[in-house]
Write a structure and sequence with these properties.
This protein has 358 residues and is mainly α. The chain has 15 helices and 4 strands. A two-stranded antiparallel ribbon has the order 1-4. Strands 2-3 form a two-stranded antiparallel sheet.
Length: 358
């Protein structure tokens, strides 16, 4: 990343802090949700863009993180009673695994650690068995089906198809108040910056070079004495933890989590965010997540009956004409204009110097 790019990204990040001053509350809530998606995209880019492992099941890790935080919010909303969906399902006692979620700290740590541990187990067992490429993608989708089926089937403990909703407060503060929404937005923005810096440190370190080597030539790396399983398991687990963190932040702003939000279609859509922005570039993943969700929101508002056609056309255009994403197109444009006009300017300066010397 060049110095100019860093300045532009830093300036853009700074502008996002001014958003609460120039937008309304609805837009702040929407943008906060998109920033949480940006955090999720960073995790997917680490595992797909840098390591070359296409996971189509990251909706599971995102959803698990969201469910952990939603359980805390649901218990706070219910007070001393059982959550409403448990009463409707005939549950008479609070399940033991719900009890720890009265604590916000436990819910927050679980939203990160539970997806991380699940990803570590799935990743280790898969990579040790040398399951990769399309087979790993199919396996990750199977994981989505298993988890969503489990959540739907255990309606008395998970809310079933409807999921968990009707949250009222967090720390006693109304979730719908402008002040709370602004605080959640700023926290999400700060977490995005922190996760970005952490991810950038990984990809610029020796570990990052090993991950790229796995993507470009895993067998050659193995012959050099490295153990790809260990590195792939680490980055997959780390990516799952990031997805869980994004889910926890998202549910605080969306106010609902259901199996439909972590199904196969949302999981594939998450990968498309990274493809649109440009895989293998962390800022491209964040930009892709923001632009794709802004386009989705804009199209659905302006064309409620046919917005899916517009979104589908955008996906096709990205795959057909922008294989390295928006970031790749912008980079090539800069190079073109630099060669086209920068060369002319340099030639004029050279001629001017020659005339001056003569």
């Amino acid at each position: 990343m060049g110095g100019k790019t860093r300045i532009i990204l830093f300036a853009g990040y700074g502008v996002l802090f001014l958003a609460p001053l120039i937008t309304n509350q609805f837009q702040i809530n929407l943008l906060g949700r998109f920033l949480a998606y940006g955090i999720l995209a960073l995790g997917i880019d680490l595992i797909w863009g840098y390591t070359g492992i296409l996971s189509l099941g990251h909706g599971v890790y995102f959803g698990l993180g969201a469910y952990c935080m939603a359980m805390y919010l649901k218990l706070e909303a219910a007070g001393t009673r059982l959550p409403d969906f448990m009463e409707w399902s005939g549950v008479t006692h609070m399940p033991a695994f719900w009890q720890p979620f009265h604590s916000f700290l436990f819910a927050f740590l679980s939203s990160v650690l539970l997806p991380l541990l699940l990803a570590a187990v799935v990743g280790y067992l898969s990579f040790r068995s040398r399951i990769r490429n399309v087979y790993f993608s199919i396996l990750s989708q199977a994981l989505v089906i298993i988890v969503t089926t489990l959540l739907i089937g255990e309606q008395g403990y998970t809310g079933g198809t409807n999921g968990l909703t009707d949250f009222a407060t967090v720390f006693g503060q109304s979730l719908s108040s402008p002040w709370t929404q602004t605080i959640l937005y700023v926290i999400t923005l700060l977490v995005l910056g922190l996760v970005y810096v952490l991810s950038a440190c990984i990809v610029s370190s020796r570990l990052g070079r090993v991950l790229v080597s796995i993507r470009d030539g895993e067998n050659r790396l193995r012959f050099l004495g490295y153990d790809p399983v260990r590195y792939k398991t680490f980055v997959y687990a780390f990516s799952g933890g990031i997805a869980g963190l994004a889910g926890a932040l998202c549910v605080l702003q969306v106010g609902i989590i259901s199996p439909g939000m972590m199904d196969i279609v949302p999981s594939v859509e998450m990968v498309l965010w990274v493809a649109l922005g440009g895989r293998g570039t962390l800022y491209g993943a964040v930009i892709g997540a923001l632009l794709m969700n802004i386009a989705k929101s804009t199209f659905s508002d302006a064309f409620p009956d046919i917005w899916l056609f517009f979104l589908g056309g955008l996906f096709v255009a990205v795959v057909a004409f922008m294989q390295d994403g928006i970031v790749g197109v912008v980079k090539r444009s800069f190079i073109f204009f630099e060669n086209r006009f920068g060369g002319v300017a340099r030639e004029r300066r050279r001629l001017a110097n020659q005339q001056h010397q003569s």
